[in-house]
Amino acid sequence: MKIEKKELEKSQIEIKVQVPAVDFALYFEKGAAEVSKDMRVEGFRPGKVPYDILKSKVGEMIILEAAARILISKTVDQIIHDNVSQQVIGQPQIALTKLVPNDDLEYKVVMDILPEIKLGEYKNFEFAVKKDEVKDEEVEKVVDQLREAQVKEIAVDIPAKEGDKLICDFKIFLDKVPVDGGNAKGVAIILGKDYIVPGVDKKLIGIKKGETRNFEITYPTDHFQKNLAGKNTEFEVQVSEVFERQLPEVNDEFVQNFGLKNKEELYHNIKDSLGREKDAKTEQKTELEILEKIVANSEIGELPETLLKNETDLMLKELEHSLLHQGAKFDDYLSSIGKTREQLIVEFRPDAEKRIKSALVIRQIILDEKIDLDDKIVDEEIKKMQETYKDRPEIISRITTHEYKHGLANQMLHQKAIDQIREWNVKK
User: Fold this and answer.
1) How far apart, in Å, are the Cα atoms of 203 and each of 81, 167, 174, 200, 233?
2) Which among 171, 285, 367, 374 would be 20 to 30 A from 142, CA to CA?
């Protein structure tokens, strides 16, 4: 068997394999048996038709193709193992390049590999992390959200004032022409809070149930609907209901709904929670800055298209999941920004490249520093999860699989490396 190995661009390797005719011939009978499994030939059981009889019925090339598939499946893994020392990504691409009766068989294998990494300096950057303090107005905003969750609404038949909620039917026009998607029924608006564009709610102060108002609004120049950004539009708004909203006072009765003793404890808990949130964001930002510096100091080979495609696909799924969590549809989002899925993928590529390179330098640091993880730690984490989800058999069956344990171990090892990188590079 003759093997030629060649390195291609973008971290790919090509292996050409030439199998002598005499070796290939050893697979003819196996190929014939495979082909004859799906054939009915009088006097013979499926899979047991003699080679010469089968050849006369289906032709020699059909048998040769089946024999070639069997030979490749038997030999390709060992060939890759013996000739490729780098980490292979995804499934190799296999193609028959020569299949001729009474001649050598030739096929080639093209595979993506992890690019070569030469780490530069990755320690002692002395990053200074400044704590982001929680402001009083941020705490008040959360308190207002808690009050909003317990608001009482009473239908009234008096002119609407700031703070009231309106149920409206909207029609929006641009140069007297209805805007695509500009009709909406049963829309809730709280006066004093911006709806679609700033100023709409102010135009509806004093309106009563059953009334209609027409007015003009200029969209902001940076509005996400590019066809309306900076344009003067006409609104026609009919109000079907007006509700007076009564927000609860922040007193002992209010805080007891959250299992707390008093107002002071509520404010303390909110401030503490916001502080932890800010600390987590600061940590994440610092980690990204450190990794960017490590990547800039390192030499990284060309990224294979497989990695870039997988990462952009993942980013797209993350965006879809985020929009779904917010109650929005992905197709509606695409329409609002005037872009296609393919255009988003192109835009994601630079960030996908950054994410991949960060992951690659972390992997290399783990290897160079011999950072490892005790299996007992992973087992303990799984035991905690089993206790948490003991009444959820469908979750228990998933988290006890070998695949889940392997994935969890990789995540925990990755986090251990991140913690170590931070320890090396953040000022005490």
Assistant:
1) 72, 15, 18, 5, 13
2) 285
> Residue 135, Cα to own-chain centre: how many angstroms?
32
| Helices within 19-135 (DSSP H only) | 21-24, 28-36, 51-58, 60-83
Asked if the model's pLDDT at residue 365 lies above 90, the reply is: yes
pLDDT at position 42: 65
Q: Characterize the bridge pairing of strands 12-19 and 2-8.
A: antiparallel
- Find the CATH number of the domain harbouring 156: 3.10.50.40
Q: Tell me, what amino acid is at 216? A: E
Same domain, 47 and 186: no
For residues 354 and 243, give the distance between their C-alpha atoms in angstroms, rounded to a whole number: 50
pLDDT on residue 282: 92
- The residue range of the domain holding 308 is 261-425
Tell me how many domains the chain contains. Answer: 3
Are 420 and 371 in contact by the 8 Å Cβ rule? The answer is yes
**327 and 236, same domain (yes or no):** no
The CATH number of whichever domain residue 41 belongs to comes to 3.30.70.1050
The verdict on residue 345 lying in a domain is: yes
Asked if residue 109 is part of any domain, the answer here is: yes
304-356 per-position pLDDT tens digit: 998 999 999 999 999 999 988 888 888 888 887 878 899 999 999 999 999 99
DSSP sequence for 242-272: EEEEEPPP-SHHHHHTTT-SSHHHHHHHHHH
Supply the DSSP symbol for 202: G
pTM for the model: 0.73
Q: Give tens-digit pLDDT for 271-297.
A: 999 999 999 999 999 999 999 999 999
Residues 419, 265: Cα–Cα separation, whole Å: 33
